[in-house]
Write a structure and sequence with these properties.
Shape of chain B: globular
Strand order of the largest sheet of chain B: 8-7-9-10-23-22-19
Strand order of the largest sheet of chain A: 6-7-8-3-9-10
Number of helices of chain B: 14
CATH superfamily of the largest domain in chain A: P-loop containing nucleotide triphosphate hydrolases
Oligomer: heterotrimer
Strand content of chain B: 25-35%
Number of strands of chain A: 14
Largest sheet of chain A: 6 strands, mixed
CATH class of the largest domain in chain A: Alpha Beta
Structural class of chain A: alpha/beta
Chains: A alpha/beta, B alpha+beta, C mainly alpha
Helix content of chain A: 25-40%
CATH architecture of the largest domain in chain A: 3-Layer(aba) Sandwich
CATH topology of the largest domain in chain B: Rossmann fold
Order of helices and strands of chain A: EEEHEEHEHHHEHEHEEHEHEEHEH
Largest sheet of chain B: 7 strands, mixed
Chain lengths: 312, 547, 249
């Protein structure tokens, strides 16, 4: 359905997307995950023919984005980040405009708008100016507008930012229902989003793909562990100083104080790391006391942190 | 994949670089079309009377030119710097271009701007050739600035030179040029003979303006005194008045007409006599009346007053008197088919008589001008002084003719008679005699209105002068310039109401109020209405969905 | 233009017209357009001072009026869309660039058209109350005013596409339009050496205002039609190119 090969995009010779290739099949729900500035939005803008790639090939339904942008745009419903809308229009006027541009049959415009309004529960705000709506409603108007022509592909850039938790849940439900029939690509920098909705995740870091797999596979193939331990010692400053010097962990953080002199830490380590040994040596040397130690397999969040997080 | 990159590169370079080239290409295309349209251009002149295009007679005239004709237009920089005058300069240049465009290549236009400082010598030379200066005033920033403008034309043709000393208005410009061209290429059909038979007036004194006007319009005008024969090269005569003609003079006019000559008669049937104390009108006697009578045109010895359309004569600064014996012919009473008068809106006359047309020539005669049907006549001695007038003098319920045009065959007044004796015994009649012949006549029953005193008083407008010239053009069957002549009044004055009156101010205020205050108000009202409608529509939609 | 394109253009046109009519900008434009030139025309020279039934003085100042008014109307065309991010929305809808451009152009022209129509009471009422107008001249003047407006719109549209800032768009458009308008007057008021006369010719030919002179006289000349239509097309083309090039930046 969507195939991206060796996609490169530079702004003023600074590459933002570097050699990205991936495919999305029909009916898949794929998440683009990455911190802000990783290039998610740029990739989406290229897919929706808003930007042209510097090099690489993008085909959607077998059509090249250079050859038939209009045909491609017809297939796609694209909700940009921050859901820009014409604030002076009312919800219904805006949906009307979109339906006209989308070439929906004149007789069917009313019914398709009604359907969308029902789907996104916009009944209360149909006559309000969009600029007067809350962020959540604006998002819903945006969603209604991208689905009104029943597109085969939905591309949603950060669809849940600005929504309150209840709305997020409703949105996720809706998305799952939609993904039965449609191909969906959504981007987010929030992991839980992906966990809750997506089948497959593409993790992007600084313009390159660092992981592209189903969530299950990702967790299965990920061998890193994290250790949670607590120490008993007198001087916290000293402990913190010494612990942070320890080698072998790619992430180490202080969690909380269990008691007056008991300090809890968490460390993420690779499977073959010698962090454990180093820690034991240090405790022995400093004459501290190890209260407890737990070893766990890393969860998605840690995986994401490792793959996409800032390098120290 | 490599292929695709190449494609991107290709598209990209096409988009990025060639857009500059292609827009340059478009710009060049526009310039080329521009240049092409300079040569193959069309103009739709939507103005009334096509002010900005040369008219058909001019096109025909220009096409007649078969030798090099050079029109040189000179103007100095003061003209170009003057706001109003710069438009005239532009207009003249524009219109002269048209002359060139329509000619068969023989017309050359030279337009030259001269600097007051640098081209001193050239300007002096032009001044010696006849061009003259006119002061131009211009108000700028509250200050009036005066400058000397020169704007004139010199036309050269076959070694001849014709000068138009001053052109400071676009009004009548085309006519002015055409007239000069006609004169210089000798395309003028009218050689005019002037016969004055009105009291002891002369072309040197009382009719000098008239003579000037005719001389500026036609290449040749000759004064024919009593007893003199009419020269053979003359084809139109103008006869002013009636009483001073001898039998021989009447005979020579008759024979001139029988031989194909044409005539323009202006005479009333009354004599105006005035001294310090009174002004009176008395019936006029003259042998010319008998001649015209014989032809079938009777000029009655009466004075016509029109109670409906007349001139108001100022008595003092504040007062105007209604003066029905200076009738104004207007509207329906002007013949709308005859080219002499059909374009006039109104024409004023001074102490006219009525004209009757005999049945025998009715079919060949057109009545040009009539009074309204509220006119009256008086046949005996009449006081003319304003003080004797209390409007209405008489009840009027008749309509009188005061001008007519005849075209057709006439029988000689002297058929079977002997040649009358010429008082000037040195001059004999030498031309052939004819008993009948085809001719054309224009008769206007008024003899005063080309007198200097009337022309001077500005009672006569360009219309009355054009009536004279149009008549000559009709008589010589050269109608080409008649239509350009009324191309003079381009500026449509605000003349439906007298300016500076209360009524004018009221109407002016209506215009200002509606366009400047009411219209914006209506727009704002429309704004409120449209947004209210939107609001109610929004409400309706909301209710619909809430259900 | 096929049927789809027509409906797309129509949809954009409707949206833009709604934007003008549901917000104050269109009305403010029309009201000021009626008010300011009329005041100048009635009280500082013009019809009653000349005592002539002609709108030539009105139309003589129109090029200068347009310098301020047209950018005021068009400054947001692209700048505001860019600023609000709605450009992304518009360009990811299945619309061609030219459909969007023409829709926007026609809607702006409609506003100018309404404003011009709203000035008609001046000649019409004067015609009936005070003195007859030359109707042919009037028609040519209004046609010219509309054509000149489209040229001004095309130029300020183009400038609006270059920048994100409304105020920059306005000021830049005003300056460029003023330049193109005044070089025509300049040619008349500045002395040129005889050798440099051709520069004067070129300046008058490229000026936005000199090509209006014929229209305001009452003459429709092919060269003026070519100029206004050509300039509009040129700037439309540049406009589309600028929008297109944004995809590569």
């Amino acid at each position: 359905m969507i195939s991206v090969k060796n996609l490169v995009k530079s702004y003023n010779n600074v590459p933002v997307v570097k050699d990205v290739s991936f495919e999305v099949n029909k009916g898949e729900l794929v998440g683009l995950l990455g911190p802000n500035g990783a290039g998610k939005t740029t990739i989406m803008r290229i897919l929706t023919c808003f930007l042209n790639p510097t090099s690489g090939e993008v085909n959607i339904n077998g059509m090249n984005i250079f050859d038939s942008p209009i045909e491609i745009k017809k297939l796609i419903g694209y909700l940009p980040e921050h859901t820009p809308q014409y604030g002076d229009m009312t919800t219904i006027e805006y949906l009307n405009f979109i339906s006209e541009v989308r070439g929906i049959d004149k007789n069917k415009i009313k019914s398709s708008i009604d359907e969308m309004i029902k789907l996104t529960s916009l009944e209360d705000v149909v006559s309000k100016k969009i600029s007067e709506l809350s962020k959540g409603y604006q998002k819903r108007v945006g969603l209604a507008s991208v689905m009104i022509h029943d597109p085969e592909i939905l591309i949603l850039d950060e669809p849940t930012t600005g929504l309150d938790p209840n709305q997020v849940i409703t949105f996720r439900k809706m998305l799952r229902r939609l993904s039965e029939k449609k191909t969906v690509i959504l981007s987010t920098h929030v992991l839980s989003e992906i966990e809750a909705t997506c089948e497959r995740v593409i993790i992007i870091k600084k313009g390159t793909i660092v992981a592209n797999d189903t969530l299950q596979n990702l967790v299965n193939n990920f061998t890193d562990e994290f250790i949670e331990f607590s120490l008993k010692a007198d001087n916290f400053t000293e402990i913190d100083k010494e612990i942070s010097k320890l080698k072998g962990a790619w992430k180490l953080e202080f969690m909380k104080k269990d008691a007056k002199d008991i300090f809890r830490y968490k460390a993420l380590i690779s499977k073959d790391s010698d962090f454990d040994k180093n820690l034991k040596d240090l405790i022995k040397e400093k004459n501290w006391k190890l209260i407890d130690e737990k070893r766990n397999k890393a969860n998605l969040e840690e995986i994401f942190l490792k793959l996409a997080g800032e390098e120290e | 994949m490599k292929n695709n990159d190449k494609k991107i590169d290709k598209i990209k370079s096409y988009k990025m670089e060639t857009w500059l080239i292609s827009s340059l290409f478009i710009a060049i295309m526009i310039i080329i079309i521009f240049v092409i349209t300079k040569f193959f251009y069309f103009r739709f002149d939507l103005t009334k009377g096509n002010k900005f295009s040369i008219s058909k007679p001019t096109v025909e005239l220009v096409k007649k030119i078969n030798n090099k004709l050079i029109i040189k237009y000179y103007y100095n920089d003061n003209c170009r710097e003057h706001v109003g005058m710069s438009k005239v300069v532009q207009y003249i240049n524009d219109l002269l271009k048209e002359y060139k465009n329509y000619s068969k290549g023989y017309v050359e236009i030279i337009s030259e701007e001269l600097s007051t400082q640098r081209d001193r010598e050239k300007l002096d030379e032009l001044e010696s050739k006849g061009l003259s200066y006119k002061s131009l005033s211009e108000a700028s920033a509250g200050e009036a600035r005066l400058s000397q403008g020169m704007s004139g034309i010199i036309i050269n043709y076959e070694g001849k030179e014709s000068v138009i000393p001053q052109i400071f208005t676009d009004v009548g410009f085309e006519y002015l040029i055409d007239k000069e061209i006609k004169k210089i290429i000798n395309d003028n059909n009218a050689n005019i003979g002037l016969i004055l038979a009105y009291g002891n007036k002369s072309f040197e004194n009382e009719y000098s303006y008239l003579k000037q006007i005719l001389e500026s319009e036609y290449s040749k005008t000759t004064i024919i005194n009593s007893g003199e024969n009419i020269p053979t090269d003359i084809n139109v005569i103008m006869v002013i008045g009636a009483e001073q003609l001898t039998d021989y003079d009447v005979f020579k006019i008759d024979q001139f007409l029988m031989n194909g000559g044409k005539a323009f008669f202006t005479t009333s049937g009354i004599n105006i006599l005035y001294n310090q104390y009174s002004q009176i009108a008395l019936p006029k006697d003259g042998k010319l009346f008998d001649l015209l009578n014989h032809y079938g045109i009777t000029i009655n010895k009466n004075l016509i007053g029109d109670n409906e359309s007349y001139r108001a004569v100022p008595r003092s600064i504040l007062e105007e008197s209604r003066y029905p014996i200076w009738p104004i012919i207007t509207g329906e009473n002007i013949n709308k088919t005859n080219p002499i008068v059909k374009n006039f809106k109104n024409l004023g006359f001074f102490w006219v008589s009525s004209i009757d047309i005999d049945e025998k020539i009715k079919n060949n005669t057109e009545i040009l001008l009539k009074t309204t049907n509220k006119a009256w006549e008086k046949k005996d001695r009449m006081e003319l002084g304003l003080d004797n007038y209390k409007y209405p003098i008489e009840q009027g319920d008749k309509q009188f003719n005061i001008a007519c045009a005849f075209k057709g065959s006439l029988e000689s007044y002297y058929k079977g008679k002997e040649i009358p004796k010429n008082e000037n015994e040195n001059i004999k009649y030498e031309l052939g005699r004819k008993d009948s012949g085809n001719t054309q006549l224009v008769v206007i029953s008024n003899d005063m209105f080309f007198e200097n005193s009337i022309l001077d008083s500005r009672l006569v407008t360009q219309s009355e002068i054009n009536l004279l010239i149009n008549s000559f053009d009709w008589l010589t069957e050269d109608l080409s310039l008649i239509q350009i002549r009324d191309k003079k009044k381009f500026l449509n004055e605000l003349d439906k109401v007298k300016p500076n009156t209360k009524q004018f101010d009221t109407r002016k205020n209506i215009v200002i109020a509606v366009s400047t205050y009411i219209m914006p108000f209506l727009i704002i009202a429309a704004a409120i209405l449209i947004n209210l409608l939107r609001y109610s529509r929004r409400k309706k939609i909301l209710e619909e969905y809430k259900k | 233009m096929d049927k789809r394109s027509f409906f797309n253009t129509l949809a954009v046109y409707k949206k833009e017209i709604q934007n003008y009519f549901y917000s104050p900008i269109g009305y403010v434009f029309i009201v000021l357009f009626l008010f300011i030139p009329n005041i100048l025309f009635f009280f500082f020279g013009g019809i009653f001072k000349e005592n002539n039934a002609t709108m030539r003085m009105y139309f003589a100042m129109l090029p200068i009026i347009y310098i301020i008014f047209i950018p005021g109307l068009t400054m947001g065309t692209w700048s505001k869309e860019k600023n609000d991010g709605t450009l992304e929305l518009l360009f990811t809808l299945p619309l061609n660039r030219y459909e969007i451009l023409i829709g926007k152009f026609l809607s702006t022209l409609t506003i100018v058209f309404i404003a011009l129509i709203a000035t008609l009471p001046i000649p019409l009422i004067t015609h009936f109350l005070l003195g007859s107008f030359d109707i042919g001249q009037l028609i040519s003047q209004y046609i010219g005013a509309l054509l000149m407006a489209s040229c001004y719109i095309a130029i300020s549209f183009f400038i609006s596409s270059l920048t994100k800032e409304l105020i920059v768009s306005f000021l830049l458009s005003t300056s460029i339009l003023a330049l193109f308008t005044f070089i025509g007057y300049l040619a008349y008021s500045v002395k040129f050496f005889t050798q440099l006369e051709w520069i004067k010719g070129i300046l008058t030919e490229i000026s936005l205002s000199t090509h209006f002179l014929n229209f305001s006289k009452g003459v429709i000349d092919s060269i003026d039609l070519v100029y206004y239509i050509g300039m509009s097309i040129l700037f439309f083309y540049l406009n589309i190119r600028v929008l297109e090039s944004k995809r590569w930046s």
